[in-house]
Amino acid sequence: MAVSSLSPAQTLSRVDAPAVKTAGRLLFIDNIRWTMVILVLTMHATDTYSPFGNWYYTDRADSSLGTIVFFAIYQSFLQAFSVSTFLARIVTPENKSVLNMHPGDFPQYILMFSAGILAFRGAWLQRVPDRFAAKWAVGALLISMLPLGILIIERGSGHVDSKAFNGGVNFISAIKCLWEACVCLGMSAGLIALYKRSFDRQSAWARFLSNNAFAVYLFHPPILIAIAIALHSLSAPALVKDLLLSIGACAATFALSGLIFRRIPLLRRIL
Question: What is the pTM assigned to this prediction?
Answer without folding.
Answer: 0.77
